[in-house]
Amino acid sequence: MDYLIMAGQLMLSLSILIVLHEFGHYLPAKWFKIRAEKFYLFFDPYISLIKAKKLNGSWQVKTALSKNQDFTEDNPDQTEWGIGWLPLGGYVKIAGMIDESFDKEQMEGPAQDWEFRAKPAWQRLIVMLGGVTVNFILGFLLLGMVLWNWGEQYLPAENVVYGIHVDSIGLEMGLMEGDKILKIGDKPMVQFGKKELIEGVVLGDATSITVERSGAPKTIDIDEKWISFLASNEGKQYAIYGERFPVVIDTFEAGGNVELSGFQQGDKLVSINGKSTPWFKDFSKELSAQANTEATIGVIRNGQEIAPIKSKVNDKGQIGFVPQLLETASIKYGLAEAMPLGFVRGYEFLASQINAFGKMFSGKIKATEGLGGFGTFAKIFGNTWEWSRFWQMTAIISLILAFMNLLPIPALDGGHVMFLLYEMVSGRKPSDKFLEYATMAGFILVLGLVIFANGLDIMRGCS
Questions:
Q1: How many angstroms separate the CA atoms of 250 and 148, rounded?
Q2: How far is CA 159 from CA 61, 189, 281, 326, in A?
């Protein structure tokens, strides 16, 4: 079920982004009176799941179950709308343009006034930039709308009063149990989390962490090797550090053993079977080791230690309560505040992606660790359907698609833009044959990258 929820969110998100991206090409093409022969969500080699076309004032609809998918008549001025069966993107087939359809026949005759190739270079440039423009605007807009509708909730670093707990990687980096993180590099830690460490070290070139240890500040130097590790898929599996807090009962879970055993709200649980467990991480780990047994829990109530309480531990290593967490902070934004802030957050994200690309080219981050396929994208949505996270991730993917599509690779929008800019500067248009071969090479390259990225996902899943 978790995989279905993640896959469903990814499919819906990509469908929205693909359709709007292609409308970014379709609308300016229609404004400049260029024929848009097809508009498809997903690709349709040999057969379409469904397609429709308006002919003689009424719509004709064909499905994959239709005996004949050809329309009874044709009108080249009308666009064929459809959904293909291969969910690797979508497209608008614009007349007189060399694209991934590789339709050579239409390019053999003289250019017609309703074809892409017959239009001035500036009009063709607007058509090609339409898709990424929509993705950029959509990404910034959605980030602003998420901030406006849901605001932000975070754990202030100043509220981590008990310091941190660390895992093996955190210890190796030089952190210790009970440290209070003050700064990553030169940037004070305001919002507590692992993300601040990754952004600071991997993307911000931070070379140190400043902590408060035993009441005094201490600077920990960060070795350059941690840049590639924190950016890697292996590094993402480690918590590095987390907030430390005592075990205090906040609420009881319905049907849990803890309430039946005589515990009360506000009880502080300090030991299991005589073993001291002052912090929630220690308590949770020890309780998991006592699964399907009866454990003796040390309790402090109203500041006084009382007699230990016995409680059954279920097969998940739980006794049925929710602990008191550290106090978080919430920020609400008005529309006038949220929209500019959405642009700032989007800009910061794009800057971080460009920085990450630079580190990949310089070898500080392995390219194989920076690539991911559909599985990687699906995981960022999480295994629960939360609309705030869904729209935030959709915004991020929209910005990623815009950025990737602008890369000067033939078959991508950026490749077409590159050739158009060359034409506008030099006054010479590349030959159709050259564009055909370049587009074919770019298409093979992009397809190879897609296969490679999804292959990495498969290998990570099997390892």
A1: 30
A2: 60, 11, 17, 7
Token output for 385: 């359907």
From the options 2.30.30.40, 3.40.50.2300, 3.40.50.1380, 2.30.42.60, give the CATH code of 249-323. 2.30.42.60
Say which CATH architecture domain 157-243 belongs to.
Answer: Roll (2.30)
Please give the model's pTM, rounded to 2 decimal places.
0.81
Domain residue spans of the chain: 157-243, 249-323
Q: 319 in helix, strand or coil?
A: coil
Q: Per residue in 142-188, pLDDT tens?
A: 999 999 999 999 999 999 999 999 999 999 999 999 999 999 999 99
- Residue 245 is given by DSSP the state -
State how far the Cα of 230 lies from the Cα of 137, in Å rounded to an integer.
31
Alpha carbon 434 to chain centroid distance?
36
Residue 411 CA to chain centroid, in angstroms?
A: 24
Helix (H, G, I), strand (E, B) or coil at 110: coil
Q: What's the one-letter identity of residue 150? A: W
Residue 57 has φ and ψ, to the nearest 5°, of 85, 0
